[in-house]
C-alpha cells in the first residue's frame, strides 16, 4: 500500500508523530485488502489508472479509498471511465480498496488515504473519536442499497429472528448499526460489542458471507449491494429492504469524506475530485446500462470477477447515486448508533464542509445542498 504523496508539508508533522501507528496500520490493511471480496487488490499501479497529464494541481497525487461494492458506484464508474483523472490533470489518482468503513477511516486518519467513499456510521464514529479534528463529509454519493436477506427455510418473519445468526460486514459499520438498531426497536436484547444476545450478530466480511450463508453458518445477513442480491440469487429472501424503513425511501449509504489536513493543504485537488464525482453521478443517471458495464469492468480490473447480470441488475436497481449528502438522515443514523449501544450521543456540529461541493454545483448551474444545520 502506498500512502498519498503531496508537494506541501501537510503530512510532515502529522506523519512523523504517527510512524509506528501508520506502519502497523499498513500491515493490517495489506491483510484487509487480501481478504476483500470483489476487487481485493490495490489499484494504485500506473496501469490501473489513466496516466496523469496536463497541469499538475497542488499535490503530486491523491489517494482515494472506496469499496468494491455497488453502493460505491460513483467511485467505481468514475475511476473506470477516467473521469477523476481527467479533472485532476497532472495530479495522479491512486486508490485503495477496503471491505468495510471502520478500517477505511483508520487509514484516512493515519494519512494512508486522502479522500474516501464511506458509509455514514464510520464517518460519524471517526469524527467524534477525533473530537472533530480528522475528517469532513464533503458530498453525498449513494442512497439505499442495503437489505436483510435471510434463509426462508429458517426465517419467515421478523418474529423468527430470535436464536438465529445474522451477519454484518464489520462491528460499527453502517449495516451493523442498522441491524442493531432494528433489533432494539423490535425488543431484542443485544450486546453490541460481542454480538451476543437474542439474535447472534456475526461480523464477517463480504467475501465470505455468501459461502457462510450457503453452508448454513449464518441464517441471514444485513449487507450492502451487491452482496444482498448475491444472497437472493443463492435462495435467500429479502426480508427487509432498508429503503422501506426511511421516509421517502431515501437515506445516506455512502458519503465522500476528506482528511481535514488534506483539505486545508490541497483545496484545488479536493474540488477536482468533487467535480469528477458530480460528473460521474450525472453520467450514471444518463447512462444506466453503460454504468453497469463500467462497474463490472472495474470489478474485473481490480482482480476479482464480474457480477452475473441478474445480480448486477438487482443491485443497481436498489441504489440511487446522489450528490446530496442527505444530511438529515445522518443525524438519524447517529441516533441509531446510540440506541444500539455503539456510541454515546455525539456532537456532529461541523461534520460537513459542503462549500467545495456547492462551488462545483454552482458552476454547473445547480442549487446548493443542505447540511441540515450540521
Q: Work out the radius of gyration.
A: 19 Å
Average of the residue pLDDT scores: 88
Q: Spans of 5+ residues with little confidence (pLDDT < 50)?
A: 1-47
The figure for the number of domains is 2
Number of DSSP strands? 11
**What fraction of the residues are assigned to beta strands by DSSP?**
15-25%
Cα shape = globular
Structural class: alpha/beta
What is the H/E order? HHEHHEHEHEEEHEHEHEEHHHHEHH
Portion of residues in helices? 40-55%
Number of helices: 15
Assign the CATH superfamily of the largest domain.
Periplasmic binding protein-like II
End-to-end distance: 34 Å
Structure description:
Helix content is 42%, strand content 17%. It is an alpha/beta fold and 374 residues long. The protein folds into two domains: 12-145 and 252-328 and 343-363, 3-Layer(aba) Sandwich (D-Maltodextrin-Binding Protein, domain 2); 146-249, D-Maltodextrin-Binding Protein, domain 2. The protein has a six-stranded mixed beta sheet, sandwiched between helices. A five-stranded mixed beta sheet has the order 7-6-8-5-9, with helices on both faces. Helix 2 (19-35) runs antiparallel to helix 5 (101-110). The longest helix is centred in the last third of the chain and has 20 residues, at 267-286. The relative contact order is 0.18.
